[in-house]
């Protein structure tokens, strides 16, 4: 991909547009009990609620996920930006979180994929969402693959 396209992806990935769109997506998802917003652009979405690492307040964001057994796989791509997304930094500090998948809410524990897990999951997530391959090319950082494992009730 050419350098102009890379710059465009980076600008879009770091723009305030995504924050605003994310707030609308989250509200619509919550308001509808997951009937609206659970799928968008051909991808499955969940709502992830973390504890802010600085504020201590709950933060909710909509994210694309890939199911893997009874776990949920997220990619901390941040649109190809050179810094990790806030939700991942929050999970690094406090891995206990809550997700809403459709109308179901459940507790999860997050972990970064081990090197062996990453080797298996990275090709799968790039196949599921080809944008991850683009993001991989336009950032110098390692993009974390995050596994959310349900907490038994």
Describe this structure in words.
This protein has 153 residues and is of the alpha+beta class. The protein has a single domain, classed as Roll (Pnp Oxidase, Chain A). Helices cover 38% and strands 31% of the residues. Strands 1, 2, 3, 4, 5, 6, 7 and 8 form an 8-stranded antiparallel β-sheet that branches. Strand 4 and strand 5 form a beta hairpin. The longest helix has 16 residues.
Write the layout of secondary structure elements.
Elements: H1 3-14, H2 16-31, E1 39-40, E2 43-51, E3 58-64, E4 66-68, E5 71-75, H3 86-93, E6 96-101, E7 104-112, H4 115-128, H5 131-138, E8 145-150
Helix pairs in contact: 1-5
Helix content: 25-40%
The fold-level CATH name is Pnp Oxidase, Chain A
Shape: globular
Mean pLDDT: 89
What can be said about this structure in brief?
The chain has a single domain, classed as Electron Transport, Fmn-binding Protein, Chain A (Pnp Oxidase, Chain A, Roll), CATH 2.30.110.
List keywords for this structure.
Pnp Oxidase, Chain A, eight-stranded antiparallel beta sheet, alpha+beta, 8 strands, globular
